[in-house]
Write a structure and sequence with these properties.
23% of the residues lie in helices and 27% in strands. It is an alpha+beta fold. The protein folds into three domains: 15-79, Structural Genomics Hypothetical 15.5 Kd Protein In mrcA-pckA Intergenic Region, Chain A; 96-168, Pseudouridine synthase (2-Layer Sandwich); 184-344, Pseudouridine synthase (2-Layer Sandwich). α1 (31-38) packs across α2. It is elongated, with a radius of gyration of 23 Å. It starts with 14 loop residues before the first strand and ends with a helix.
Length: 348
């Protein structure tokens, strides 16, 4: 959450790329000039863009590029993307491009595709695919080989809309929209149970589990975790499961999955959080087989990033992209619709 003159590091959604402690013998010098001396291959425009976006902090407070550094100052430069760990290799992987211009590219990601290379997933990612695409089109804006400038992510097994910037200035501007929660993001999820309220808001800090670092959980009390808010409304009811729309106010890791589990409605077939078990329904063998058949059709958490709205970083035009549900979720929903009708007729 932004503060009046800065932000708390535990709440920020940006990544720290550089951190310097000013020497005690340092004379007064503008922070932009100081950073140009300290950061290898840093351009004046790059430093100025970071300063204009509020991404340069001194002693945890946002400063203008004219700020004069002083001995013992702690200077941090934040960006909207993580630091690159490995060389990124172009790969000929088909992707559905919804929109593309000189500044942004919007893609409808398939379930099962990792967004960015990381430990255990250095190939076959969306970034690898986009680098290949940029080579084909001749649009390699990122001269240092780092590929597209990511602004946000969605989980490997979540399908749907994701956006990347094609130059650093656009990334900084789009990253600020995410940081300031001014984007429109809507997801559709199939969850276990009959959601009681037609709509509601889930608020609760999200952090890594203290018992299992691979998962996240809600910490309703105390300062642990990051502030998170999810708004939801019911789209369709099937008795034992419910189709809901979620609107994100914040963008924490696994936010929808963790928040909905917190209120008792784990995502359908979300193995990480127990949704691959039959959590609601009857003990009838036919019902159990029906659910298992649904699991085979949708072999991942039933979550789709349906739409994304943002302000274009160059034209300032409002952009909006909406996608249909993928075939696996549509097929499972149709099966549940038919099951709900049979149940209502007493043929369960």
């Amino acid at each position: 959450m932004a503060e009046e003159n800065g932000f708390r590091e535990e709440d920020q959604e940006l990544f720290e790329h550089y951190r310097f402690e000013v020497d005690r013998g340092q004379g007064l010098l503008r922070v932009d000039k100081y950073l140009m001396l300290k950061i290898e291959n840093a351009s004046r425009n790059k430093i100025q863009s970071a300063a204009n976006a509020g991404n340069i902090l001194v002693n945890n407070k946002v400063v203008k590029r004219s700020y004069k550094v002083k001995p013992d100052d702690i200077i941090s430069v934040f960006m909207a993307h993580p630091i690159r760990e490995t060389e990124l290799i172009p790969e000929d992987i088909p992707v559905e491009i919804l929109y593309e211009d000189n500044d942004v590219i919007v893609v409808n990601k398939v379930a099962g595709m990792v967004v960015h290379p990381a430990y255990g997933n250095y190939q076959g990612t969306l970034v690898n695919a986009l680098i290949y695409h940029f080579h084909l089109t001749g649009e390699i804006q990122n001269k240092n080989g780092a590929g597209p400038y990511l602004v946000h992510r969605i989980d490997k097994d979540t399908s749907g809309v994701i956006m990347a910037a094609k130059n650093e200035e656009s990334q900084i501007k789009l990253g600020k929209q995410f940081y300031n929660h001014t984007l429109e993001r809507k997801y559709v999820a199939l969850v276990w149970g009959d959601v009681k309220e037609e709509q509601g808001t889930i608020t609760g800090n999200i952090g890594r589990s203290l018992k299992n670092r691979k998962i996240f959980r809600v910490f309703p009390e105390g300062d642990y975790g990051k502030h998170a808010v999810t708004h939801y409304k019911v789209l369709e009811r099937f008795g034992y499961v419910t189709l809901v729309e979620c609107k994100l106010e914040t963008g924490r890791t696994h936010q929808i999955r963790v928040h909905l589990k917190y209120i008792g409605h784990t995502l359908f077939n979300d193995e990480t959080y127990g949704g691959n078990e039959i959590l609601k329904g009857t003990t009838f063998t036919k019902y159990k087989q029906f659910v298992k058949n649904c699991f085979k059709i949708c072999q991942r958490q039933a979550l789709h990033a349906k739409s994304l709205g943002f302000i274009h970083p160059a034209t300032r035009e409002k952009m909006f992209f909406d996608t249909p549900l993928p075939p696996d979720m549509e097929e499972v929903l149709e099966k549940w619709r038919k099951y709900a009708v049979h149940k209502a007729l007493g043929k369960e």
